[in-house]
C-alpha cells in the first residue's frame, strides 16, 4: 500500500507556494498541525480573552461590535464580528465535526451500529440531566426560559480537552465522545430552531431547503466537485440566516453527508500485490516503478489489522527529519516483557503517543520502572530512505540481534514510533488463521 506525493498535482499547483516553501518545516507549523497544538491555541485564546475583558471591557466589546458586510449588488449579509464567528466560522468547525463523525460511522469505531446506541443514550441523558438541574434552581423565575443554554456541551472545548489527554486513552473513547457531542449539537440546534427562534421567515427557509435538495440530488448522481457543494452550502447558510434559524446546522449536515469509503476492490488488489512483493524485503526499484514517495511494508500476517493503524504509521513522516516510521503497543504482562519472540522498542518520548526509536531488542528492556513497548512489524518508508536502507550492508548489531531495523539505527537513520492501543492479532498457526476468519466473519 502506498501514497503518492506529486508536486505537479493540481493541489500543489494552486497552493500558492513554491515547492521549496512547502517543504520548509517550522516548529510553529509542526505544532499547529497536531491536535494538541490546536487545543493549546484554543486554550490560550480563551485565557487571553478572559484577561482582556477584565482589563479593558470597553475595547473588548468594541472589537466584537465591528460590522463586516458582504454585498452583491443590492443583496448581502451584514453581521458584527461576534455573529460572524458564532454563525460563520463555527459553521466550518461543525463541518469538520460532521466529517469526523461520518468517518467513524463508515470506517471507524462506529461502523458497528450497536456501538452507536450507548453514546446516543449518553448524549440524550446528559442533556436531560443538565436541563433538570438548571430548572431545579430556576423554576418559577424568568431565567427558567434559558434551559436551552444548559443542555448544550461546548464541543470545541470538549474535543480540545480530549486532544490534550486523548493519547493516553483508546481511540474508542474519542469515537464515544465525538458521537455524544454530535448528538448534543443536533438536538441543541433543533431546540434553537424551534424554541428560541423569535421570527421565522418561510421564504428564505424554503430557499435553504431548496439548496439542500440540490445537494442531495448531486450527491446521488454523484457529483464530486467540492466547489459546487461549497456554493450550495453557502446558499443554504444564507437562506437559514435570513429565515431566522441558526445557520451553523449547515456545516454539521454537510459534513455528515460526505461519504467515507474504503478503497475500491481494484485498488485493494493492487495493494495486496504490492504487499506480496514487499513481503520478504522491500526494494526501492518497486517504489520507483510505482511512482510513490512513501512505501508501507507489512512484515507478517495481520488480517485483522485496523485501518487506523495504517494511518498511524504515516503520522511521523509529517516530520521531514524522520526517515522510517513504525508502530508499537505498550506491554502489560511480565510474560510478554520476557518473551524473546517479542521485539521490544526502546525510545524516548517526543510527543504524546510518539517515540523516537533508540534501539530494538528481544531482551527485556529497558531496565527499571516505566513502560515497555511491543514492536509491531508495520513500517512506512520515505522512498529515499528505503533506497538508502537497502543499499546498506548488514550491520554488526543487526546480525547479533537478528533485527534488520538496527541496520538503519546504526547508519544514523531516524525511526519514529507511533504508539497504538493493542498489537494486532497475527497468523502464525492454523488455529490463528481460524480465529482470524471468525473475527472477520463477525465484522
Précis, in short:
The protein has helices spanning 10-13, 19-23, 27-32, 35-55, 57-64, 81-106, 114-138, 147-150, 155-165, 171-195, 202-220, 226-243, 249-257, 265-278, 284-290, 307-314, 334-338, 383-391, 396-401, 405-410, 430-442, and strands at 2-3, 67-72, 75-80, 294-298, 324-330, 344-351, 354-361, 373-382, 415-420. It is an alpha+beta fold. Strand 2 and strand 3 (75-80) form a beta hairpin.
Q: Your description of this structure?
A:
This protein is α+β, with helices and mostly antiparallel strands and 443 residues long. The protein has 2 domains: 27-257, Up-down Bundle (Na+/H+ antiporter like fold), CATH 1.20.1530; 265-442, Spore Coat Polysaccharide Biosynthesis Protein SpsA, Chain A. It has 21 helices and 9 strands. The chain has a 5-stranded mixed beta barrel with strand order 5-8-6-7-9. A two-stranded antiparallel sheet has the order 2-3. Helix 11 (202-220) runs antiparallel to helix 12 (226-243) and helix 15 runs antiparallel to helix 18 (383-391). The radius of gyration is 26 Å and the shape is elongated. The chain starts with a strand and ends with a helix.
Amino acid at each position: 500500500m502506498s501514497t503518492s506525493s506529486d508536486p505537479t498535482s493540481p493541489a500543489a499547483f494552486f497552493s500558492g507556494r513554491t515547492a521549496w516553501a512547502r517543504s520548509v518545516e517550522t516548529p510553529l507549523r509542526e505544532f499547529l498541525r497536531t491536535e494538541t497544538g490546536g487545543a493549546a491555541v484554543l486554550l490560550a485564546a480563551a485565557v487571553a480573552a478572559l484577561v482582556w475583558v477584565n482589563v479593558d471591557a470597553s475595547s473588548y466589546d468594541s472589537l466584537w461590535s465591528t460590522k463586516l458586510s458582504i454585498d452583491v449588488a443590492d443583496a448581502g449579509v451584514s453581521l458584527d464580528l461576534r455573529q460572524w464567528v458564532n454563525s460563520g466560522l463555527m459553521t466550518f468547525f461543525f463541518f469538520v465535526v460532521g466529517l469526523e463523525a461520518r468517518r467513524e460511522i463508515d470506517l471507524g469505531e462506529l461502523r458497528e451500529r450497536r456501538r452507536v446506541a450507548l453514546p446516543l443514550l449518553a448524549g440524550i441523558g446528559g442533556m436531560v440531566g443538565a436541563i433538570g438541574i438548571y430548572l431545579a434552581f430556576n423554576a418559577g423565575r424568568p431565567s427558567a426560559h434559558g434551559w436551552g443554554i444548559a443542555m448544550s456541551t461546548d464541543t470545541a472545548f470538549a474535543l480540545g480537552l480530549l486532544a490534550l489527554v486523548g493519547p493516553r486513552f483508546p481511540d474508542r473513547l474519542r469515537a464515544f465522545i465525538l458521537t455524544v457531542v454530535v448528538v448534543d449539537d443536533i438536538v441543541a440546534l433543533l431546540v434553537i430552531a424551534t424554541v428560541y427562534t423569535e421570527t421565522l421567515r418561510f421564504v428564505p427557509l424554503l430557499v435553504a431547503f431548496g439548496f439542500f435538495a440540490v445537494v442531495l440530488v448531486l450527491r446521488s448522481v454523484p457529483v464530486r466537485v467540492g466547489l459546487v457543494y461549497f456554493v450550495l452550502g453557502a446558499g443554504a447558510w444564507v437562506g437559514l440566516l435570513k429565515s431566522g434559524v441558526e445557520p451553523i446546522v449547515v456545516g454539521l449536515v454537510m459534513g455528515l453527508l460526505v461519504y467515507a469509503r474504503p478503497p475500491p476492490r481494484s485498488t485493494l488488489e493492487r495493494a495486496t500485490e504490492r504487499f506480496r512483493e514487499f513481503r520478504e524485503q522491500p526494494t526501492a526499484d518497486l517504489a520507483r516503478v510505482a511512482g510513490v514517495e512513501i512505501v508501507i511494508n507489512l512484515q507478517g500476517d495481520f488480517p485483522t489489522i485496523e485501518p487506523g493503524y495504517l494511518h498511524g504509521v504515516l503520522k511521523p513522516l509529517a516530520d521531514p527529519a524522520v526517515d522510517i516510521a513504525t508502530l508499537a503497543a505498550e506491554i502489560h504482562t511480565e510474560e510478554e516483557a520476557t518473551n524473546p519472540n517479542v521485539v521490544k522498542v526502546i525510545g524516548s518520548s517526543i510527543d504524546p503517543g510518539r517515540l523516537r526509536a533508540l534501539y530494538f531488542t528481544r531482551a527485556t528492556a529497558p531496565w527499571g520502572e516505566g513502560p515497555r513497548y511491543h514492536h509491531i512489524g508495520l513500517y512506512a518508508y520515505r522512498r529515499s530512505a528505503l533506497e538508502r536502507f537497502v543499499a546498506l550492508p548488514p550491520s554488526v548489531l543487526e546480525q547479533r540481534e537478528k533485527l534488520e531495523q538496527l541496520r538503519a539505527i546504526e547508519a544514523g537513520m531516524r525511526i519514529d514510533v507511533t504508539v497504538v492501543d493493542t498489537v494486532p492479532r497475527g497468523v502464525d498457526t492454523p488455529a490463528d488463521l481460524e480465529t482470524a476468519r471468525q473475527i472477520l466473519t463477525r465484522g
